[in-house]
Amino acid sequence: MVAGLVLAAAIGLSIHGLGRPAPPGYQLDRPDICWLAADEDCVLVCARSGRLIRLSPELVEDERGWGRQFIHPAGFWGRPALVPGHVLIGCGDVRLRGVAATTGLEGWEAAVGGAVPGVTASGEYAYFGSEDGAVHAVTSEGTLLWSVEVGGKVATAPLVTEQTVVVGTLKGDVCALARADGEELWRVHVGGPVYASPRMGPSTILVGDDGGMLHNIAREGELLASYEFGGLVRAPVAVAGAVVVAGDSAGTLARIDPSTMEATWTATLPGPVAVEPIIIGDTIWCAAGKSLVGVRASDGEVLSRRIAEAETSDCIAAHGRIYWATADGRIRAVEIDG
User: Which SS3 state, helix, strand or coil, does residue 130 take?
Assistant: First the structure.
């Protein structure tokens, strides 16, 4: 009997540890898809309805120096990016907007030919694609440096390296452009539409597509090998040193050896992996459907699970926390060591 009670208690503790409710966090005044970014002293919430909200690391409204939240009726799309002096936001009205980081007021806008789904900042420059099938480069003050057609709609933020800007298209191409002037250096056709931002692996470029494939591409543009998932691969790959992790819309998380493009292990999560996993030490934090799951990097064992009321829209790491946005307009913070 005692053994039975001990077993029951152990099971109860296990279930509690793996399925704790999510912390309450910060609630927007209505349900909204949100994307997140963090600076050294704040968390920025970019809402699809067209609001940029500044929160403290503890998720309290923080408008120090801001006259008010930045609001625009065109609506926003994708994570904001940070360049010196400005927060950059892709908008639904074919513009990239620069919002002054110190005042929350619009500083400039750059008009392009289509809606801007995501921005990548690098130093004093930013690079982004647009729905009209072009890739653009701007300075931190909004000066357009170059625009190049890539032959297909761009639905995600590019990968920016020292010399190149790498972007996927909905026609199933991955293109590398020269960072200095946008000259096309190479193009690889991978097959399915590319909604996942490319990522630099230990020595090659990794990118998923809607054909359920994760592709390994040499820096020179040769398609080396691919790994097949059962669902769509719309989240960017997570890379930390030699650890490479990817997930799909069927809820499969896999640690991939990029030298062979074979899985070291796979784990089944409680929902689709729509956001890039976060690797911190030996733990992979993965937003899967309505859950934030901690997975051990060495063997794929699920260590913890927080459960929300709505699907995940974004997830980032900053200030010793995982910040987690869900489609009901709630932003949560989970301590990394908790």
Answer: strand
